[in-house]
Amino acid sequence: MIGPVLTHFQGVILSLSGSGLESNKSVGAPSDRCCLQACPRLSWETERILTRQDKTQPSCPEGASRAAQSHFAAPVSSYVRDRLVKPEVRDRRAAMDRSATVEHYKAAMLLSGAGDALGYRNQLWEYNESGPAIHQELKELGGLKSIKAELPDWPVSDDTVLHLATAEGLATGKMGEELLHEVAARYVKGMKDMDGRKPGPSSILGVSLLKPGEEEGFRVPYNSEGTGCGAAMRSMCIGLRYPKPDQLLSLVAVAVETGRMTHPHPTGFLGAVAAALFTSYAVQRRPITTWGLGLVNEACPIAKTFVRGRGFAIEEAERDWGYFCDKWQWYLDLRGISNGVGPVIWPSSYDPAGRDSAYKTFSLSGWAGRSGHDAPMIALDALLGAGSDWEELMSRAGFHGGDSDSTAVIACCCWGLLYGRQGVPEGNYSNLEYRERLERSAEQLYALSH
Ligand SMILES: [Mg+2]
């Protein structure tokens, strides 16, 4: 079933029909890599096993049994495992078991903005290259619990201004190219609200070239420098608008086309696909260990077919396509989650200094989280390691050397969908800049998608 937006992308539908949506099904995981396709319920069953510690027999006994053994042998991480026994953490895990509600949507948008403001710290921490130094400063401030993320010292950065632009554009309920013009217009407007928020160069350039309302005015010329995280950091809400598995094509279509309004290089706009996909997976309660596999084996092939069908910058996109998927496959192999199950493999020491070193190896050129592929990668890494612990999530996703606001904005959005606001110090979000807009757009997106 094709989501409603795709009915407006007629050329793509023809293209997809030509190559066959069946082929998109077949581009999933090879059988020796993952049995999720053969047994779609496996992932949910294994998560239930991990959470409830029971021995419920899933509908795919052989695969689930393997998965369960893996989880019991070395579940997620020792950090998370140790905390699974704590009552407050069990409560939060139980909260995650429930379907995503409008409150989860509101938490996602709000905590995303909070993570941005905290990781940014009015420019000071986005440009601090040392995670240990940031943690030391955090300690001197009294720790995360003591921080009131509010103006004037803790503004949201470009990430949240443009995330709101995407969200409020989607919340109009428009579809197809009308939606793209709407979002483009909101990016143009959003760029007028950037004093002290440090937008990236590709975002500045791309938005300056947009001509919303004019024919093809949502397109900008191909830019081989457009690899940054600017498209990823503003796209989580696309997964809130199209959260269901049968809406994947709509999600990919909107993420690609809004993403390449500023980041026409695949490393840039596939970052938008990743951020949107991960929030949709969070809504679906799909286990985090499967998210990267879904990105590489499900969403990216659909994005490639979509780009071909749109007839714009095909040659350039195909030429530059490989890096994003190759690097993601490298990461999944590194963490032992190429099979979507695990067990997750962690370095023996993964403190702030260790994470700085590791995150640099994720990056394109040594600046962690700066690019379209590694901002969602660091976010996923933090979600995998932190479980339901907000402080640990911020430590990993928001307080590291590199583009710490853009990694936090993605991780915190997913975290809010999974766990709500439980365990988050009220000061971290209660007077956050643009709180009302963030929560209102969340309510609108929930109403449109449920
Ligand atoms: Mg920023």
UniProtKB/TrEMBL annotation:
Residue positions binding Mg(2+): 157-159, 403, 405-406
Cofactor note: Binds 2 magnesium ions per subunit.
Keywords of the record: Magnesium, Metal-binding
Cofactor(s) named in the record: Mg(2+)
Database matches in InterPro entries: ADP-ribosylglycohydrolase, Ribosyl_crysJ1, Ribosyl_crysJ1_sf
Pfam families associated with the record: ADP_ribosyl_GH (PF03747)
Gene3D superfamilies the UniProt entry points to: ADP-ribosylation/Crystallin J1
Coiled-coil intervals, chain numbering: none
Gene Ontology molecular function, alphabetical: metal ion binding
Keyword Metal-binding: yes
Family: Belongs to the ADP-ribosylglycohydrolase family.
Protein name: ADP-ribosylarginine hydrolase
UniProt source species: Scophthalmus maximus (Turbot)
